[in-house]
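ok so dumb question maybe but i'm new to this and my supervisor (M.) told me to 'just get the structure for DNA replication and repair protein RecF' and walked off. so i did the thing. is this what she meant?? sequence i used:
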Amino acid sequence: MYLEGLHLKNFRNYADLDVKFNQGVNVLLGENAQGKTNLLEAIYVLALTRSHRTANDRDLIGWQANEALVAGRVHKTNTVTPLELTFSKKGKKAKVNHLEQARLSAYVGNLNVILFAPEDLELVKGSPSVRRHFIDQEFGQMSPKYLYNAGQYRSILRQRNNYLRQLQRKQAKDLVYLGVLSDQLAAFGAEIVAARLNFLDQLAVWAQQVHKVISQEREELAFEYVNQIKAMREQSVDALYKAYQEQFERQQAKEIEQGTTLIGPHRDDLHFMVNGKNVQTFGSQGQQRTTALSVKLAEIDLMKAITGEYPVLLLDDVLSELDDARQTHLLRSIQDKVQTFLTTTSLSGIARKLINDPTIFNIASGHLSQDESVSSSDGSDSQNGDDGRETQQE
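this is what came out, is it supposed to look like this??
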């Protein structure tokens, strides 16, 4: 899978951009606050219909504009798919093959991306919500069913929490309705946990292999899924459903007293274990970095195994956060394997040696110019002009 190019209209600091990309490594080179991360964000948005940097879609619309457009063509083994997203104050519209999609869940999955940024260390060091978000976001790209179930779960959870607050304040008394909501939440919760366990089981296999190589066989990485019902990989969806039902019955009085749902996958966590110890708590910074890198690189192979296509890799200023050994492993892992977009203020000596035939775009104030002295010519020329140097429409 690769993204042929990108068309932006009033997206962040890009007023009007048309650019074609290399199928290999695309380096976005420039000083800070010039638009490198904005371009990476646009690719992420094109894939997932939302940003990783803001929860407010209006932030994506350029200054003094009423509407923003993000569009591109995705190449897979046997298909070429045009994708288009429009953001306005009224909301967003998503099109696949020029046809508007009634549900965003039907759109997501046409372009799969993996984002790796310095803040991804929070995957290891951060709160449980960070790890839950990681699981939901990545697996949602690979499984439309999981994406649907997760959306339904969130909707019912909001309803149940609202009703628990009404019961807490004595504004409602009907425990039968609470039981209905509990039953629905248990059903979707069981589906989500079963899928998570399956996903993590597969991801762990790839991550263990990567981690062993990076740690030079000195460390063993394992995953431990933590939740209230002690869910295990061998349990069926029906068994998980019954376990949630039992827990809701036991915790009903406490949940009404606190006015919130205390049980469910929205409270679960993922522990990373290195040589049997929780790396979040006991690991060194080097072990935490290696764990985060191992998990991210493992996703590449897992997505290929599940979807049949390699994802697009987005590396946002990651090289500056990695030592030489980890840089080397990262760049060797992606070379000639996945289309990669890498933002950086400067290419280090190691990166220059290890990246074969990159296309380098210099970025300044939302304008792109291709550095042809080091770029390949395999389909990376701009759509604007014959010389391929200027990719920003004025």
